[in-house]
Amino acid sequence: MAKLLASEAPWGAANATLQTFGGFGFAVEYDVERKLRETRLYQVAPVSTNLILAYLAHHVLGLPRSY
Fold first, then answer.
1. Per-residue pLDDT tens for 31-55?
2. CA of 66: how far to CAs of 5, 43, 53, 62, in Å?
3. What's the pTM value of the predicted model, to 2 decimals?
4. Interatomic CA distance for residues 13 and 36, integer angstroms
5. Quick check: is 30 in a domain?
6. Does residue 38 lie in a domain region?
């Protein structure tokens, strides 16, 4: 749960920053695009967010195994 929260929080902040900067968010000079790529990495590595959600559904909610 902590890894899920730690990956979702910076992704939301990066999206808000990109919305604020608009087209300049993709300019290399502002480093917004680099931070966006780095925060996306937290959702994929080392364990995917989907695997975490599947684990929680199976072990916490008692749903059938989906992976």
1. 999 999 999 998 888 888 999 999 9
2. 21, 19, 10, 11
3. 0.73
4. 9
5. yes
6. yes
